[in-house]
Amino acid sequence: MRVLFVCHANLCRSPMAERLLRLAVDTRPGLADAGVTAASAGTHARPRHDMHPLAADVLREFGADPDGFASQPVHAGLLCEADLVLTAARAQRATCVTLAPAVLGRTFTLRQFARLAAAVDADQVRTAGPARRVAAIVGGVHEARAHAQPVPPDEDDVPDPVGGGPEEMQACAALIQAALHPLLVLLTGGSR
């Protein structure tokens, strides 16, 4: 499963999501050999910039490795290679599906995906088996989206911590980590 995280500049939110997912995959039983990869990009990113220093500091506090990161702009090819595209906010989601309309059914904001993934029947995903688990997860979340009650729009966005201090960056990382939890539960076949 190739997960692509997208934010505005690819300096804070999407790199933190990428590295927090990598940490979870490397440390959570049942995921180390699941073939899950994570990458990130930005709708307005300039190539090869370092991660925001506060984001790197927060990742270290969470036990994740920020080293070796380089920002990259999102493009249609990158989007089409991903099995799942998770954006920081609705604006980035709109940009992604405009760049690559074929990814519409597998593109969500991170918080939207988390909300919908919590409604997916873990047994249905588990019985799909490891090889078909990705399709079952994305299909289940896509189906849940069709039946979900609307929420206030800003509830689907991860607020941009740029301009804030360490506390805002830490709160952003904690929000991202919590939003990744339903995906991790489904990837491990429903085991908490």
UniProtKB/TrEMBL annotation:
Gene3D superfamilies: 3.40.50.2300. SUPFAM superfamilies: Phosphotyrosine protein phosphatases I (SSF52788). It comes from the Bacteria. Residues 1-186 form the Phosphotyrosine protein phosphatase I domain. Keywords: Arsenical resistance. The keyword Iron does not apply. The keyword ATP-binding does not apply. PANTHER family: ARSENATE REDUCTASE. This is Phosphotyrosine protein phosphatase I domain-containing protein. It comes from Luedemannella helvata.
